[in-house]
Amino acid sequence: MSSRASWRETFAEEAIAPLVALGIALVVGDLLILAYGQAPGDVWRTLVEGTWGNAYGFGQVLYKATTLTCTGLAVALSLRAGLFNIGAEGQLAMGGLAAALVGLALPASTPLAIAAALATFAALVGGGAVGAVPGWLKSRFGAHEVIVTIMLNFIVLALLNWFVSARLHVPETLHTPSIRAGALPRIAEWFSAFHGSAANASLFLVAVAVAVVSWALFRTRAGYELRAVGLQPDAAEYAGVKVGRVWTRAMIVGGALAGLGGINFVLGYKGYYEDGFSGGAGFLGIAVALVGRNHPVGVVLAALFFATLSQGGLAINATVPKQMVEVLQGVVILAVAASVPEVRRILRQSVRGR
Amino acid sequence: MGTLLFLGQTLRIAIPYLFAAAGGAIAERAGIVSLTLEGFMLGGAFGAVIGSFYTESAWMGMLCGALVGLLLGAVHAVASIRYRADQIVVGVALNLFVVGATRFFLQLAFDSSSNSPRVAGFGGEGASGNAGAFLANPLIWLGIAVIPALAWLVGRTTFGLRVRAVGEHPVAAQSVGVPVTRVRYAAVLLSGLFASLGGVYLALDQHQFTDSMTAGRGFIALAAVIFGRWDPKRAGIACLLFAAAETLQIRLQAAQLIPSQFVAMIPYLLTIVAVAGVVGRSTPPAALGKAE
Amino acid sequence: MSTMPAVRITAVEKRFGAVRANQGAALEVMPGEIHALVGENGAGKSTLMKILSGMLRPDAGTIEVGGRDVTGWSTAQAIAAGVGMVHQHFMLVPTLTVAENVVLGREPVSVGTFDGARARLEVEELSAQSGLVVPADRLVADLSVGEAQRVEILKTLYRGARILLLDEPTAVLSPPEVAELWKVLRRLRDGGATIILITHKLDEVMAVTDRITVMRQGATVERMATRSTTPEGIAKAMVGRDIALGGGPRTETRAVGAPALIVRDLAVAGARVARAVDGISFELRAGEILGIAGVEGNGQTELLDAIAGLRRTSSGSIRIGDRDLLALDVRGRGLAGLSHIPEDRHKRGLILDYSIADNLILGQQHAFTRNGVLDRAAIDAHAADRIAAFDIRPTDATLPARALSGGNQQKIVIAREMARDFSVLLAAQPTRGVDVGAIEFIHAQLRAARDAGKAVLLVSAELREVLELSDRVAVMYGGRIVTIRERHACSEEILGPFMTGAAREAA
Predict the structure, then answer these.
(1) Residues of C whose CB is below 8 A from A79
(2) What value does the mean pLDDT take over residues A326-345?
(3) Which residues pair with C27 in a beta bridge?
(4) ipTM above 0.95, yes or no
C-alpha cells in the first residue's frame, strides 16, 4: 500500500505517464484525421458525443469496459505476483465457452439465479483452468510464462475453434445454439434510455469482482504474500511464502477473472458462444493493466478509457475510418510503456535534487 | 515428383517463417524481446503492396516493405532501448498499432476494409503453382539464404560476437568498450528488416494485401526461434519442420484424418514442451528483456 | 627510472545524493610498485578506483596518469591510456569462450570478419608471457573462480594495461589460488606494471605490497611503506584509534545452558559445487553466541539457508531441542523457535517497496491475520512499538523501507526478528553496510539476546566482529568447520591459518 506521506508523489508517478500518453495520442489522432481530410475538433466532438453523450453510447462503453475490466484484472493480478499473463485471450474464450456449455446443458426451467450462478462459476473454472497451465509449468519447471501463455493462446483458440466447428455449431455459423438458461438481463430492462445497448447485469458481477480483488490484494494475508512474491520473490520465500504455489494460484485466479469476462458476451449479450468473440479483448487487457498501473481502480478507469475509444471508433466511422482508434490504442500503450520508466526517473531525480 | 512438389510447397510456406525467425533470432540474441515479428511482417506486407501498386514494380514494393520494417524496428528500438519500456508491452502495442494502421491506410488508399487491389509481384500472373515463376522470385532465394547468412553473422563476425555478448551480459560488454546501445539498435533494425521481408514475400506472392494477412505467422516464427534455442540454424530447421507439418495438413485435408486445428497447434505445443525443459531445456539469452 | 608517479590523485570529492563517498581522497603510486589501497568497508576505496578507471566522474579534484591531467575521462580513454580494472564481480560473458571474452571490444579482424583463430593464438601467447594459465577454448561458464579471475586480468593485459587496479581480488579465492595470484602480480610488477590492490585484509597487504595508502570515511588519512609498518599500525590508521588486534582474552565466564540448535553431519549443495556445506556438526547452546568466521564463500551462506529452510539439504540433521527442523517448512521453523537475520536485507530481509509497518511483520504475517484478513490495528500498534523500541528513523511507519538508510533498514529487520518468540537466532552479517552508531546498537541487541538465554549463531565476514561478540568461535573453510574453540583461545593470529586453509583440526 502506498504511504500517506508520499501519496502525492505516488499519484504523480502513476498518473503522469497516462496523461502524457493521452496527449501524444491526441496529436497522432489529429494527424490521422487531417490525413483523411476532416477537421479534428469535429471528429473528437463526435467521438465524445457518441460515447458519453447519450445513454445508448454510454451503455455500449459500459458493455465493452466490462470485458476489458476482467481481462485487465487478469493481467494486473498476475503482474502483482510478478508474472506476465499474455494468455487472457484464451482464458476469456474458454470462460465464455464454459458458460455457454452450462447454459446449454441446464433445462430452460432452471431459476435464473441458479443458472446464472452455475454458468458464471463455469466461466471462472474454464478461464482458471487455462491459467493453471502456465502457472504450473512456471512453478514446476520454471517455464517462462510469457512464452507459454502466448503459445497457449493459439492452442486454446484452435481447440475451441475445432470444438465449435466440429461438434456444436449452428449450421452456416461459427457459434453454438442459444443457451436455454442463465441469460442475464440487459440494463435497458431497468433504464429504458439504454435501449439497444448491450450493457447487462454481468456489469454488477464484474464490479463485485473488482471490489473483491481490491480487498483481497490489499487487506488479506494472501494479497500481502502475493504482492511480496511479485516484488521480491527471495524475500517472500524468506517470509515462509511458498513462491511456486503463489505463482500457480495467481495464474489460476487471473485466468478465472479473464474467464469471467466471457459471461458478458455469452450470458449478457448474444446468448451463445461464438468463435472469436474475444476479438483482442485479452490483448487489450495488457494495455488496460498497464495504463491502470495494476491497481483494480486504475484498471476500471483504463477499461472505460479503452472502451470509449473502441465505441468512439464506431461513432466517428461515418467521417473517419474506425480503425483510427486501433492505431490510437497502440499509440497510447506504446507511449505509456515508454514514459513510465522515464517519468519515474525524472521524479526520483527531482526528489533527490531537493 | 510428389516429393518434389511437397518440398516446394513446404519451402513456399517456410519462406516467411525463415525471414521472420531470422529477425527474431537477431533481436533476441541481443537481449531484446521479439513479440513484434507479427507487426513487422504485416507492416512489410502492406508497404510492399503500396510500393508495388504505385510504381507497378515488385522491386519497389520490396523496397517499400523493407523501409516500413526498418521504421517499425526503429520504433521498437527507441521505445525499448532509449525509453526502457517493457519490451513485452512494446511488442503487444506495436502489433495492435500495425493492425490498426494497415486497416486505416487500406481504407484511406483503396477505400476497402478487407483487401487491396491486385498488384504486381515477382514472376507474373498465376505464379503460385508454376515452378518457373517460383524460381524467378528473388525473395525465395533470399529466404533460403537468410538463415545461413544470419548464422554466419552471429557466429563468425565481430558484430555477431558483440550481439551475443550484449544479450548475455551487457554490463560486461560495456565495461570493455562495446557500444551496447548501438549494437542493440542495429540488431533490432535488422530484425525489422528481416521480418518485414517475410511479409513482403506473402503480399507479393498473393499479389495483394488482405486485412491481418500474416495470421499469426510472426508468432510461429517466434516459436521456431525459441524451439531452436535461439540458434539461427536450429531456428531455420524448426521453420522448415513447422512448414512441413502445415504442408502435410493441407495434403491430408481432403482425407479428414486429423482436424486441421490440431496440426496448427504443433509449433505451439512443441515450443511449450521446449521451454518447460521436458526434452532439453531451452534457455534464453540471460539479459533478454532487461533494460540494463 | 623517472620519479614521476604513475598515478597521482589529489583532493577528490564525490557525492551520491546525500552520501559523501569521497572527500579529500588522494593517492600517489609510483611506476612498478604494488600499492595497497586499504580501508574499512565504506571507506571510499571502490569509488576512488571507479573514478580512476573512468567509470565515475569526480565532483572535484584532479586525476593525473603518467603526469597527464585526465580528470573526468571515460572508460574507453582510461583503457586506451593503459589503465585496466579487474572488477570484484567478474565482468565476463559466461556463454562466450575465454578467448572471445578476452578480445571482446578489440577483436582481431581478417577480411572484415572476426578472426577466432587469431584471437585464440593471441590469448595463448599472452597467457604464456604473463604466466596466467587459462584454457582459451573453454566457455567461461565452465571455469573455476580462480580461472575466471585470471581471464579478467588477461583482459586488461590484452588491452595493454600498464596500470592494473584490482578490487578485493581475493574475496572469492581459495588460498592456493591466492598464492598463485601473488606470484602473477609480482611477475607483472617485475615486468614493469603498476598495480593497485584494494583490500581490507592486512595479511595480504603485508604479504605482497610495497607501499600503502589508508582511507577512512572517504578521505586519505595515511601513506606508508609496507616495510616500515606493522598490521597494528595499518589497523590503527584504518579505524582512527588504537586497536588491539586479536584482543585480550576474555576473563569472564558465562553460564551456558543446554544445546538449543544441534546440527549433525550436514551436507548442502551449492550453486556451483556439489557440497558447499560438506559434513558439518556442532551444537549451539542457550545463552551463548557462537561466531562463525571465515572467508566469504566457504559455505556460510548455504549453512544458514539450510538451517532456515531456504535450501535443500543433501544429508544430515538439524534440530532445535528435540524437534527435527528438516521436517518443517520455513514458517514451521519459525514457530519452532527460529529467528533469522538474513545476510542480504535488500534481497531477503526486506520488501523495499513495502511500508515500514508491513516490513515489521514479514515472516510473521500469520500472527497479524484474523481469518485470513490482515489486522491493520495490530500491525500499526506493532509498528509503533518496534519503531520506538529500536529507534527506527524516520518514525513514520507508512514510509517505504526503500526510503531509509542502511542502518535503519537493518534495524527494521532486527526489531522484527527480536519480536519473535524464539530460542535460536541466526544472525548473518548483521552489521554489513550500516553506520557506526547502528553497529554498536546492533551488537548490544545481540548481546542482550544472549544474556536473555537465547542461542545466537553469528556469521560475519568481519573477524573483529566475531571476536568482539562471540563466546565460542568456529572457522569455516571449504564447507567444513576447521576449528571450533572458546573465545579466550582465539586471536587473529591463531584463526588466520584456519581461515586460509593453512591449518585444520578435527572439529
Answers:
(1) none
(2) 88
(3) C9
(4) no
